[in-house]
Structure formats: structure tokens, C-alpha cells
């Protein structure tokens, strides 16, 4: 195939990408620190390195596709969140973003708590040695077995999501002769995504008990009457990939007004507020996320101000970042296969993974960036679409991307910021074998989640 035949860019106005890829970047070889994990650089050969290891060597040893996780970056982010919130607050890492035994160990060592949303996430956390009192269990439909296990192992808090659950958790705690610490998850009528938040009508969802209409206040009434439950606070989670703090401000104000109502009605000041997760990260250089320090300061000020206005003692604050901790720490390493130039349109670049290792593009129209990482190139930028190998035309990893026009089969591409909700949401579509997670640090690499094998899949298929 003649490389020079590739169109250097789009010729039809209707295929021009929007946003991040509206124009080619000045230099395709730059690995911008805003989207790549901290220890990523290019070495003298022009190949990318992470944790001191050349991606070509990583591909050789562990195969592709693979998620490469920068352990030093993960730990640094944990420390930054811990330091930003200080001793008067708790940081619960949201395990749904990505959970493994190694991650639990790092969280434990770095002083973070852990939020789990299923019995199996709980099992991983406990197995890896997270003390139960530092775990919170969420979920809108916890099973009896999950509740039983949580109470039995002594999880620090169960976040109650419905009236039925209040009764079920109370009955289980009663049965075990325990007093279970709980929070009540409320819906505050705010939904936030990226730069927007909407402050009406979002009680229309499956999670939580609505503040509007008094469901949340009724839940407090019921919990306070139950001997086997200790109500420690109110929980709210308003959305995902949020950059604008205005949604949190409205949420905090509404949660604090419930705390004031509770004090007035019951003479009880609840000691905790959890404002959930949802803090955004940079998927492309167009995204401009807040630093943990700034977020902690903004949330602390909002809660303090609202409590002072309501004459309440400031409760202990907790947050549950998942994406903001693990998201930026990993990239997916792929090998380029088929390259299909479409004259005047774009070039389809197929990689050896796809929607089975990153469903976010297909599911949420998520934007990612991508770079050639096995070498540098001075070739002109080529408007590309990075697609997977699945039998589905929606199998897109990066919708619009500029890659060098001399891209060839066997080159390695990497998609940064895939640490959150990629391995966690990976599937076996087309019997794809889910890729490994390889942790790198200080010149060492180790598999923390191994690649699935054909035997794994065949073992499940009992015939
Ligand atoms: N706390 C609660 C109660 C949550 O429901 C979530 C996420 C988090 C914390 C963590 O949110 P984070 O800081 O990671 O945004 N699969 C979607 C995201 C779903 C998030 C669900 N809940 C995605 O790939 O964007």
C-alpha cells in the first residue's frame, strides 16, 4: 500500500471532526502530560516509555492489547487526594472504576478508603486486606447475600438506597446482633456531566431517596427508629466527568438543608456528608480538570458556608473519586493491523482490540486521543478513525484522530486515560480475551490482572 496515497486530511466539510480533532496538532509526536500518566516520556529511539520501560518491550513481553498502568502515578494521585482533603475528611476510592487486589493494597498503603458496589467487589477488597471498617457498600439493589456479608464482615457503612433496604439491612443486623453504621443516599435534584449541570427533575432515576417530596426525610425517620442501625450521614452522587463545581454546590446546599431539618425534627446532628464522586479527567487536551487541592478547597468551603448558615456543626466530609484517581494512570497499548484509506474521507486504522476493551466510545460517545508510540514520525497528519476488530461497525475506539500518514501494520498505538471504566467494563464480545493490566514502576513491570485465555472461556462453557 502506498503511504503517500493517504489523504493528509479531510476534503469534505461534512467529515471534518469537531472539538479536539478539528485541526491536526502542531506535533503528532508530543505525548502531552495533560493526558498521559506522569512517567510517560519518549526515549532516544523515539519510542514511548512508562515507568522507565519501553512500550515496545512491554508489547513484546505482555502482548497487545494491554492496559499499562503507571503505579507511581496511581500512588501519587492517591496521596494528592489524601493530602488535599486532610485528616478531617475521608477519600473513598470508587472501586467500580477499576478494582484489583494490587489496587486495594496500594489504596490501603496510601491511606484511602474504598467504596464497593457489589458483593464481589467487597470480596476482592477483603481478600486484599482492606480493613472492613474502611469500606462502604453501595448499590440500588443489594442482594440478601450481599447485605449479610457486609454486616457480617463489619463494613464501615452501608449506603441505604431505598425503603425496602432500610428494613432489610436492619433485619440482618438484628439477626446478627449488630448495630450497622449506615448513610442514606438522597437524590438532590441535580444531575451534572462535564461542564453542565441541571438542577431540576433528576429524581427520575433508580438511585436514592428524593429530597423533594419528603422521601429522604421519611427515610431518616424510619432509620432513626431502628435500634440495629446507626445513621451516620447523608450521601449524594450527582454524575460523571464533572468539571464545574456548581452542581456540587447545589447538592451540598440541599444535603445540608436536610441535616438542618433532621436536627429540627429529631434533635440529632448527623456527623457525616458524602458528596460522591464524578470528578472529571482529561481525555483530550481540550479537557481542563481541577486539581484535588482545588476540589477539596471548593467542597470544604461550600459545606462550611452552608452549615454556618444553618447553624450546624460542620460534618465530616467524604468524597468518592474513581475516574479521577485511576483514569489518567493507564493507557491501552494496541498493535496496528489493517489500514484502510478512504479517499477524501478518512483512514480506518484497525487495532487488535476494540469495543471489548473500551466500550466507552460506543456507549457514551466518549472522546479519546491516540498516539503512535513505537516510534516517532515526521509524516504529515492523516485524519484517522481507530477501530477495533469486532464484527460491528460501531466498534470505534477513537472516532477522530490525526495519526502520521506513514502508519504501518505492526506499529504500536496507545490510547491514554483508559484506567477507569475500560477494564472494568470490558467484555468477551466475539469471545475476545480480556486484556491484562500490567503495572509498571521504576523499571519493573508485573501483571496485576492476567490476560484471559481460551481455556478460561472454555471452562465457563460447560457444554
Ligand atoms: N460514587 C458513586 C455512588 C457512584 O455511583 C460513582 C460512579 C462513583 C462514586 C465514582 O464516580 P467517578 O469519580 O469514577 O466518576 N461507566 C461510566 C461511569 C459510571 C459511574 C457510575 N458511578 C463511564 O465509563 O463513564
Describe this structure in a few short sentences.
The chain has 463 residues and is an alpha/beta fold.
Please describe what this structure looks like:
The protein is an alpha/beta fold and 463 residues long. The chain has 2 domains: 29-70 and 328-460, Lyase, Ornithine Decarboxylase, Chain A, domain 1 (Beta Barrel); 71-324, TIM Barrel (Alpha-Beta Barrel), CATH 3.20.20. It is 28% helix and 25% strand. The protein has 12 helices and 24 strands. It has helices at 55-62, 71-85, 101-109, 119-127, 144-153, 163-175, 215-225, 246-266, 292-309, 323-326, 360-364, 454-460; strands at residues 41-42, 48-50, 53-54, 66-70, 89-94, 113-116, 135-137, 157-160, 180-187, 191-194, 196-198, 209-210, 229-235, 239-242, 272-274, 316-319, 330-342, 346-351, 371-372, 381-387, 396-404, 412-416, 437-441, 444-449. Strands 4, 17, 18, 19, 20, 21, 22, 23 and 24 form a 9-stranded mixed beta sheet that branches. Strand 15, helix 9 and strand 16 form a beta-alpha-beta unit.
Amino acid at each position: 500500500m502506498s503511504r503517500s496515497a493517504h489523504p493528509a486530511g479531510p476534503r469534505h466539510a461534512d467529515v471534518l471532526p469537531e472539538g479536539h480533532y478539528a485541526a491536526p496538532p502542531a506535533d503528532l509526536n508530543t505525548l502531552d502530560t495533560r493526558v498521559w500518566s506522569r512517567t510517560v516520556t519518549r526515549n532516544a529511539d523515539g519510542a514511548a516509555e512508562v515507568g522507565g520501560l519501553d512500550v515496545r518491550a512491554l508489547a513484546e513481553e505482555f502482548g497487545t492489547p494491554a492496559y499499562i498502568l503507571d503505579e507511581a502515578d496511581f500512588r501519587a494521585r492517591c496521596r494528592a487526594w489524601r493530602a488535599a482533603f486532610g485528616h478531617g475528611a475521608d477519600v473513598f476510592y470508587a472501586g467500580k472504576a477499576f478494582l484489583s487486589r494490587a489496587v486495594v493494597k496500594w489504596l490501603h498503603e496510601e491511606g484511602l478508603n474504598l467504596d464497593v458496589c457489589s458483593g464481589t467487589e467487597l470480596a476482592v477488597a477483603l481478600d486484599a486486606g482492606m480493613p472492613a471498617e474502611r469500606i462502604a457498600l453501595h448499590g440500588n439493589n443489594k442482594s440478601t447475600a450481599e447485605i449479610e456479608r457486609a454486616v457480617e464482615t463489619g463494613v464501615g457503612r452501608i449506603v441505604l438506597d431505598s425503603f425496602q433496604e432500610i428494613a432489610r439491612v436492619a433485619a440482618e443486623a438484628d439477626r446478627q446482633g449488630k448495630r450497622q453504621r449506615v448513610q442514606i443516599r438522597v437524590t438532590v435534584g441535580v444531575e451534572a456531566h462535564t461542564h453542565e449541570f441541571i438542577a431540576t427533575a433528576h429524581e427520575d432515576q433508580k438511585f436514592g431517596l428524593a429530597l423533594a417530596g419528603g422521601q429522604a426525610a421519611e427515610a431518616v425517620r424510619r432509620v432513626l427508629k431502628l435500634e440495629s442501625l446507626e445513621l451516620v450521614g447523608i450521601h449524594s452522587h450527582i454524575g460523571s466527568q464533572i468539571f464545574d463545581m456548581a452542581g456540587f454546590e447545589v447538592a451540598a446546599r440541599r444535603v445540608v438543608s436536610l441535616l438542618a431539618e433532621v436536627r429540627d425534627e429529631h434533635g440529632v446532628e448527623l456527623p457525616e456528608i458524602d458528596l460522591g464522586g464524578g470528578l472529571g479527567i482529561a481525555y483530550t487536551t481540550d479537557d481542563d480538570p481541577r486539581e484535588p487541592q482545588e476540589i477539596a478547597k471548593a467542597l470544604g468551603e461550600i459545606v462550611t458556608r452552608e452549615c454556618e448558615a444553618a447553624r450546624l456543626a460542620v460534618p465530616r466530609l467524604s468524597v468518592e473519586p474513581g475516574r479521577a484517581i485511576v483514569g489518567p494512570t493507564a493507557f491501552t497499548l494496541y498493535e496496528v493491523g489493517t489500514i484502510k484509506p478512504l479517499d477524501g474521507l478518512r483512514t480506518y486504522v484497525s487495532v487488535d482490540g476494540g469495543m471489548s476493551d473500551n466500550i466507552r466510545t460506543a456507549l457514551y460517545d466518549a472522546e479519546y486521543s491516540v498516539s503512535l508510540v513505537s516510534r516517532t514520525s515526521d509524516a504529515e497528519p492523516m485524519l484517522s478513525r481507530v477501530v477495533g476488530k469486532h464484527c460491528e461497525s460501531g466498534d470505534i475506539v477513537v472516532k477522530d484522530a490525526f495519526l502520521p500518514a506513514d502508519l504501518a501494520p505492526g506499529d504500536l498505538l496507545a490510547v491514554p486515560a483508559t484506567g477507569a471504566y475500560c477494564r472494568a467494563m470490558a467484555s468477551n464480545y466475539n469471545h475476545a480475551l480480556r486484556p491484562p493490566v500490567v503495572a509498571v514502576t521504576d523499571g519493573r513491570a508485573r501483571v496485576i490482572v492476567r490476560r484471559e485465555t481460551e481455556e478460561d472461556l472454555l471452562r465457563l462453557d460447560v457444554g
